[in-house]
Design a protein that fits this description.
Largest sheet: 8 strands, mixed
Shape: globular
Number of strands: 8
Distance between the termini: 65 Å
Strand order of the largest sheet: 3-2-1-4-5-6-7-8
Structural class: alpha/beta
Radius of gyration: 23 Å
Strand content: 5-15%
């Protein structure tokens, strides 16, 4: 299948490589030339602009966007719409908020085009292992792009989830669950690390991978991380968030769902970024005021 692909970041470039290795013809474009030249070496057709990319497609056109969430997605959609014909398909594979995808779908549909919102999971390992794909939009358009989704995903690793917004909602909740799982592993390993037994955390994680109910791919990655740096001395405990956790918590509030674990894991990430917390200073001050408890003086 021939497909246009815009956005060659860590995920996007490897997705193009996986498509090429599965026999698809990919016309690619990226604002910076370096990543484009790399995928061209592997067989992609390089385009000089969005207009050039679409001019190189034929038949029912499919343009896949793999861009950061936000205005850049809307800018590209606005640029693409006039260049496509009725029935053509725009796939948006970034980590976008599902409500934004519903609005984008309506705008695209007004021009006789189809919009597929596709959540993509797999990270830097996706080229080798395949990407889990969860997507929403018009069912006919979703069926049309199945040769692509089947090639990108491992066996049974792709799913049409429903109407517009469904794909990005499923991906959002997936990432929210991921936040909670990662936080539970992090806390558990800290308890073990602070025990008096001098435990080999890598060996424990590796053993848990065999028959334990907490085995998972995340635990496999913990084995790798601990093998590379057993005490994690080379990194700081500073954790960013992509936005998916925030949207999951907001959606839980909208739907009156008590999402305690996901919410707590998100707030813990916020806490990790504070060099010194005013809230903790206030807590110490109040404790000193009412109970005369000692405080640690600032240097």
């Amino acid at each position: 299948m021939k497909i246009g692909f815009i956005g060659l970041g860590k995920m996007g470039a490897n997705m193009v490589r996986r498509l090429l290795r599965n026999g698809h013809e990919v016309v690619a474009f990226n604002r910076s030339r370096g990543p484009l030249e790399e995928v061209m070496k592997e067989g992609a057709i390089g385009a000089d602009s969005v207009e050039d990319l679409i001019s190189r497609l034929d038949g029912r056109k499919v343009v896949w966007l793999m861009l950061p969430a936000g205005n850049i997605v809307d800018e590209h959609i606005a640029q693409i719409i006039p260049l496509l014909s009725k029935g053509d398909i725009i796939v948006e594979g970034g980590n976008s908020y599902w409500r934004d995808s519903v609005v984008r779908s309506e705008k695209v549909a007004a021009h006789g085009l189809h919009f597929i919102d596709c959540g993509v999971s797999g990270g830097v390992w996706g080229l080798q292992n395949g990407y889990a794909l969860m997507y929403g939009g018009d069912a006919d358009a979703a069926a049309f792009i199945e040769p692509v989704t089947k090639s990108l995903a491992p066996e049974n690793g792709y799913l049409y989830c429903g109407a517009s917004g469904a794909g990005h909602m499923v991906k959002m909740v997936h990432n929210g669950i991921e936040y909670g799982m990662m936080q539970a592993y992090a806390e558990g390993f800290e308890i073990l690390q602070k025990s008096p037994y001098g435990m080999n955390l890598e060996a424990i994680a590796e053993m848990w991978m065999h028959g334990s109910v907490v085995r998972s791919w995340l635990l496999e990655l913990a084995v790798i991380a601990l093998g590379q740096d057993p005490k994690l001395d080379a990194i700081k405990g500073y954790v960013n968030d992509s936005g998916e956790g925030r949207w999951t918590v907001q959606t839980a509030i909208d739907f009156d769902v008590p999402a305690h674990v996901i919410t707590a894991s998100l707030f813990t990430r916020f806490e990790s970024r504070q060099d010194e917390s005013f809230a903790m200073k206030m807590l110490a001050a109040l404790r000193n005021q009412f109970g005369g408890h000692a405080v640690v003086k600032a240097e």
